[in-house]
Design goal:
It comes from Paenibacillus agri. It is a single chain. The protein is built from no helices and 4 strands. The radius of gyration is 12 Å and the shape is globular. A 4-stranded antiparallel β-sheet has the order 2-1-3-4, with no helix packed on it. By secondary structure, the protein is an all-beta fold. It starts with 5 loop residues before the first strand and ends with a strand. 14% of the residues are buried. The chain has one domain.
Length: 73
Amino acid sequence: VGAGNHLVTKVSSTLIPTPNVGDAAPTGAGVTNPYTPGEDITDVDATTNKYIGVYEVDSNNKVVSFKLIILTA
């Protein structure tokens, strides 16, 4: 994570589209902002809530980078 940036996670039951650089960080249900690396990500499973979006955002909550993780059984 770059200087001044932080991580945001989003857990979803549907595929999370890749955001564009500069888009606003996600908000709402399933979002943890800020996410601290090493903390458990809650409400995930390999069947329903299997999509995890990990966003690096800047100090203005704008997306810098994104990684989609798909859990499997």
